[in-house]
Specification:
Distance between the termini: 59 Å
CATH architecture of the largest domain: 2-Layer Sandwich
CATH topology of the largest domain: Beta-Lactamase
Helix content: 40-55%
CATH class of the largest domain: Alpha Beta
Radius of gyration: 25 Å
Strand order of the largest sheet: 2-1-5-4-3
Structural class: alpha+beta
Oligomer: single chain
Number of domains: 2
Order of helices and strands: HHHHEEHHHEEE
CATH superfamily of the largest domain: PAS domain
Number of helices: 7
Length: 209
Amino acid sequence: MFYLLSIIYGFVILLSDLGLEDVVITPMMGLWWLLILAFFRPPKEIALIALILLGFVIVSLLDNSLKIIVIRSISFTIGSILAGMVAIEKERVADQMRIIFRIIHLIPAVVIASDSQGTIIAVSDMALTRVSSDYRPLVGHAITDILFGHLKPTTGIATYREWFQRDGIFEVQICLPGSSDRLQKATVECSGKRDSRILVVFIKEKPLA
């Protein structure tokens, strides 16, 4: 699908060039398209789409000297390599996250992981047995609803944001839904940077008195 869209896009920007006298926009617009796709598509697709668009770039430059054609084509190729590097990095981070999710899923303890928005992205099997069925599926749910039943909503959100900014491992108290407001000890750890940063909560089984 994206190959066909890229071909159509290439024809559109190439036709746009016909209406311009002294400016060639195909190389620049082609790179914009590649960089956008790099955030969503795998590196191999980016490489093939770059080759498709390179053909349109060369056609758009045919009225120029050979020197300009070579230089602009090389510039486009360098930009395509950078787009490919973005795609590779995104895929690497996604692979790491998938591994982390599988590990969390199999941990024989109550473990819940969430992202910067406070959305649960992974849970262990044991966590599913400890949380009220009213909150299932846990993945996709707001973690503040799961951990802070004993707090006001605004206080819970502020507490989560404070946790997410901290580094290292620290102890907290939480209250799982269905636990009759009994506080439990938990260990929290934040790791990663920017989009890949996650917060992991390890919940201890014994409620506090």
